[in-house]
């Protein structure tokens, strides 16, 4: 029996071939952010990158970015209480579009891929529906990366 292939590895390979890096904000960090900030702040912010102890958060307006920057040390302390001391070294707030989960419009831009390259990268996935889902995830990520500051 062959070794299982993880979807995150396949998506990582595909994202590299499309020319962008797939960053991951762990579910623990997202959950800690939501629990720490509460409903109103969570609706106006979106953690989008966590790398080398730096949490990057998109804010819906300059007002939110300014206010949260003033609260940065307190937020960092509370997040580290939930995640483990020293896990978050810094928080950076940027202004951008907060995308809410919704149904995608049909007219959205599709990523142009070489079909042979796509098949090679997705070949470990035997289920066709899963392959289509993986591609849709990457299309969404690439669209969001184009919008980020």
Structural description of this entry:
The chain is an alpha+beta fold and 149 residues long. The chain has a domain at 27-95: GMP Synthetase, Chain A, domain 3 (2-Layer Sandwich), CATH 3.30.300.180. It has six helices and three strands. It has a three-stranded mixed β-sheet with strand order 1-2-3, covered by helices on one side. The longest helix has 20 residues, at 128-147.
Question: Helices, strands, pairings?
Answer:
Elements: H1 7-17, H2 27-43, E1 45-51, E2 54-59, H3 62-70, H4 72-83, E3 90-95, H5 115-122, H6 128-147
Parallel strand pairs: 2-3
Antiparallel strand pairs: 1-2
Helix pairs in contact: 1-5, 1-6, 2-4
Q: Ranges with pLDDT <50 over ≥5 residues?
A: 100-111
- Please tell me the overall pLDDT: 76
Structural class by sheet pairing and helices: alpha+beta
Q: Class of the domain at 27-95 in CATH?
A: Alpha Beta
End-to-end distance: 45 Å
Radius of gyration: 18 Å
The amount of beta strand, in percent, is: 5-15%
Strand count, sense and barrel status of the largest sheet are:
3 strands, mixed
**Helicity level:** 40-55%
Order of helices and strands: HHEEHHEHH
- Coarse shape: elongated
- Individual helix count: 6
CATH topology type of the domain at 27-95 = GMP Synthetase, Chain A, domain 3
Let me know the CATH homologous superfamily of the domain at 27-95.
Answer: DnaA, N-terminal domain
């Amino acid at each position: 029996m062959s070794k299982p292939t993880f979807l995150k590895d396949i998506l990582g390979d595909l994202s590299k071939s499309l020319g962008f890096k797939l960053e991951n904000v762990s579910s623990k960090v997202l959950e800690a952010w939501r629990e720490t900030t509460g409903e109103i702040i969570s609706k106006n912010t979106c953690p989008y990158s966590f790398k080398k102890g730096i949490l990057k958060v998109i804010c819906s307006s300059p007002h939110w970015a300014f206010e949260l920057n003033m609260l940065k040390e307190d937020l960092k302390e509370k997040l580290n209480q939930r995640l483990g001391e020293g896990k978050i070294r810094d928080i950076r707030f940027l202004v951008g579009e907060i995308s809410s989960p919704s149904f995608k419009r049909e007219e959205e831009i599709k990523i142009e891929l070489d079909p042979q390259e796509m098949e090679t990268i997705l070949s470990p996935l035997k289920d066709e529906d899963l392959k289509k889902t993986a591609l849709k995830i990457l299309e969404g990520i690439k669209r969001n990366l184009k919008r980020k500051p």
